[in-house]
Amino acid sequence: MTKLLRGLAGLLGFLVLWEVVVQVGLVSKTFIPPPSVVLVTVGDLLGDADFIRDVIATMLAWLIAILIAIVVGVLAGLLLGSVPVLRTATAAIVEFLRPIPVTALVPLVLLVIGSGPDAKISLAVYASLWPIMFNTIYGMGEIDPVLMETARACGTSRFRILSSVALPQTAPFIFTGIRLSATIALIAVVSVEFLAGSEVGLGNFILVASTGSVRFDLVLAGTVVAGVLGYLINEGLELLGKRLFRWSSIDREAIA
Predict the structure, then answer these.
(1) CA 119 to CA 71: how far, in whole Å?
(2) pLDDT at res. 248
(3) Name one Pfam family in it (predicted).
(4) Which of 70, 128, 134, 147 makes the best surface tag, with the fewest CB within 10 Å?
(5) Angular region, 15: left φ>0, alpha ψ -120 to 50, beta rest
(6) CB–CB of 206/225 below 8 Å?
(7) Looking at the 3D structure of the chain, how many domains does it have?
(8) From CA 159, how far away is CA 54, in angstroms rounded?
(9) Does 88 reside within a domain?
(10) What is the reported pTM?
(11) Domain for residue 235, yes or no?
């Protein structure tokens, strides 16, 4: 509760400062409307069917992307974490691909896939895959070797070891990766919608608002909604993680 109150106090202070700066004329109301205008615009948009459709399109693409990233990231992390030779062999290409920003890949993806939902989903998967995979690999390295050796001594198959021993032990680390990747995936989806000119989505809404009638209150309102969605996703997953992994004493701060 204390954390929540401090967060609300900080947010309120930021909004007040923003309002004062705009009202005294330090910045133009035309380009940066005050929060009193932006929040009213947000309220109006929440009653607009077309805007709700854009939000749903963005969140659906986000959900598909994060689910794919979880499956691919966990499987790749378990494999690379359990086979050191394979991890060493793929280290160079992984470290080459990981720093490439999503925005740099947009033109290539548009040429290969097009500007439909597949483009933003693919790029969101690419962006959000790495934290999950690296947290899984890190978790594999933290497993007590005695557990693995005992399972092998009992004649347990590699698949059974990974699913019954490694996966439960690495679950807190994996969940941390998922929480990090969830917000990354949302950023990627909205960014690709904006840069690629998708037909629907929050990014498309912001693009149209900034290039059509140049309604900066709409631009900021769309940005605020995207920020709130990201905040809710992160807070929701953090609360879920605390409930799911009360048994774990592992420090589940960011690994990647």
Answers:
(1) 19
(2) 61
(3) BPD_transp_1
(4) 147
(5) alpha
(6) no
(7) 1
(8) 42
(9) yes
(10) 0.86
(11) yes
Residue 161 counted as domain residue: yes
Q: What is the dihedral of CA 134, 137, 143, 147, to 10 degrees?
A: 150
* 196 touches 154 (CB < 8 A): no
CB contact burial 87-117 (16+ within 10 A = b; e otherwise): beeeeeeeeeeeeeebeebbeebbeebebeb
Q: Give the separation between CA 24 and CA 18, rounded to whole angstroms.
A: 10
The distance from CA 47 to its chain's CA centroid, rounded to whole angstroms, is 26
* Helical ranges in the chain per DSSP H: 2-23, 35-45, 49-82, 84-97, 102-112, 117-141, 145-153, 158-161, 167-196, 202-211, 216-244
pLDDT tens column, 182-223:
999 999 999 999 988 788 899 999 988 888 666 788 999 999
The confidence score (pLDDT) of residue 61 equals 95
Which residues have CB under 8 Å from 66's CB, separation 6+? 124, 128, 178, 181, 182, 185
**φ, ψ (nearest 5 deg) of residue 88:** -65, -40
Extract the tokens encoding 147.
């557990």
CATH code for the domain of 198: 1.10.3720.10
Residue 36 lies inside a defined structural domain of this protein: no
